[in-house]
Write a structure and sequence with these properties.
The structure is a single chain. This protein has 2 domains: 70 residues; 122 residues, Roll (Mannose-Binding Protein A, Chain A). 42% of the residues lie in helices and 14% in strands. It is built from 5 helices and 8 strands. By secondary structure, the chain is of the alpha+beta class. Strands 1, 2, 3, 4, 5, 6, 7 and 8 form an 8-stranded mixed beta sheet that branches. A hairpin with an 8-residue loop joins strand 4 and strand 5. It binds calcium ion (2 copies). The site of one calcium ion has 7 residues, from strand 7.
Length: 216
């Protein structure tokens, strides 16, 4: 045992040649240590990498879950809002998906439209037979609706820019005044006339009540 220990003793440091150019067991030991050191460092780097990846994954998973939660909250908020909004302002009558208001005062067709627009509405546009039936009993007098042929005689247009497709004219109407020069041309439409619940055209300057329409 003693002999082996003696043999394993490092060479004397006093020999400059040996300390400068090392070979043999001592050099292998150093290489071995270097390899261990490299492997150790590599392990540390790998561990750090894994930790960083873990943190990143955890953060992105948390982000995703937060985004999902926010989207659900926003959807609920919009649903509540749309439910709340589906009522008409005080004094307006709801029918189907719209709110309607019959004016108290009377005025020209232009004045009627201005009034409706100042209320966030417009003169009524009639899109269905049900709407026509409902509105013709809304009033018992000739009342302005959002229909005219001011731009081109005989081409009736709604105030929302759509052309007239389904109409509910009374017999012999629209007659543009029937050629009478007494009242001038008739370019604006009413929901009914004095005799029945069908449309008539009258001079736009006539003083009549009007119906405004807006979405709830
Ligand atoms: Ca006309
Ligand atoms: Ca007429």
């Amino acid at each position: 045992m003693e002999e082996i220990y003696v043999d394993m003793k490092p060479p004397k440091a006093a020999d400059p040649k040996r300390s400068r150019n090392q070979t043999g067991p001592r050099s292998s030991q150093r290489s071995f240590h270097s390899v261990i050191l490299c492997l150790g460092l590599l392990s540390v780097f790998l561990l750090v990498g894994l930790i960083v990846l873990g943190v990143l994954y955890r953060d992105s998973a948390a982000d995703l879950s937060a985004t999902k939660e926010n989207l659900t909250k926003e959807r609920d908020r919009l649903q509540t809002l749309s439910k709340q909004k589906k009522t008409c302002p005080a004094g307006w009558k709801m029918f189907s998906c719209s709110c309607y208001l019959l004016s108290n005062e009377s005025g020209s067709w232009n004045k009627s439209r201005e009034d409706c627009r100042s209320k966030g509405a417009d003169l009524v546009v009639i899109n269905s037979a049900e709407e026509q039936t409902f509105l013709s009993t809304f009033t018992n007098k000739p009342t302005w609706i959002g229909l005219n042929d001011i731009q081109t005689e005989g081409t009736w247009m709604w105030v929302d820019g759509t052309p007239l497709t389904q109409s509910y004219w009374s017999t012999n109407q629209p007659d543009n005044g029937g050629g009478s020069d007494q009242w001038g041309e008739e370019d604006c439409a009413t929901i009914r006339n004095s005799e029945n619940t069908l449309w008539n055209d009258l001079p736009c300057t006539s003083y009549l009540q009007w119906i405004c329409e807006k979405l709830p």
